[in-house]
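Reopening this ticket.

The earlier resolution said the output was attached, but the attachment link was broken on my side. Pasting everything inline this time so it's all in one place.
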Amino acid sequence: MELSERRACRTLEQPRMTRRYEPKQPDRDKPLIAAMKRLAGKHTRYGYRFITAKLRQEGWQVNHKRVQRLWRKEGLQVPYRRRIKKSTGSSANACFVKKAEFMNHVWTYDFIEDTTEDGRKLKLLTVLDEWTRESPAIEVERSITSKDVIGVLEYLFTVRGVPGFIRSDNGPEFIAEAIKRWLAESGVGTLYIEPGSPWENGYIESFHGRLRDELLNRELFYSVREAKVLAENWRLEYNQHRPHSSLNYMTPAAFAATCILSVSATPRPQEYTIENVDNPLIACGT
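Inline output:
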């Protein structure tokens, strides 16, 4: 308003010193901010809650409200992505209808695709335990057949035990007679979701969102071998170090460690169903 600072402050009855005051950052916040920026640079899609969990993993005794205040002050917000709501569906095999109740109860698997630098297709087979959110395998190849799927599952059944059920969509690799017969012989029930309803397999879809956001959209693969190495590194990071909000910000591996498996990995009888199981497997703590 073309007034001098002296006259404006006198009119508003404000000391002139307040116009020149510059807040000073407390020295005690500088190490924390440095750690936050380092983690934010490494995990570019993490928000302040996940960064709080990562700080606590490193030994910081810090409240999430303090991290949130510093997070906003330093301009470290993650770019907002609009979520599109979809119909929840109601088929009997949907993940929110027939839920996993303990470790190795329900696994889910699906495919996600990407390309190498020369434009050739990459196909990734992902497997997830719906209870612990652990991913026991990410298989990367140019092409994956039902025979290859059986090979991956056969190895996982040997080292991790046989799940009660496997949930999947109706892809040709999953509904092939060979894999249906092999799963039946192994004592594993199949839960096929409604065609065209990926939200009914929500756990694996959410996992794919993280995989694409944190790896596939950030890396340019020059070969299948490079894709295999990076995918395996990401899987280990996801299982062992990435906090999971639905697990009270524990990592999947830490949560799985609280679950005590009390049955053998031998095939289970066909009458082993979600409805009649007497929860013989797990005592889990959070």
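Reporter confirms the inline version is readable. The chain has a mean pLDDT of 83. The radius of gyration is 25 Å.
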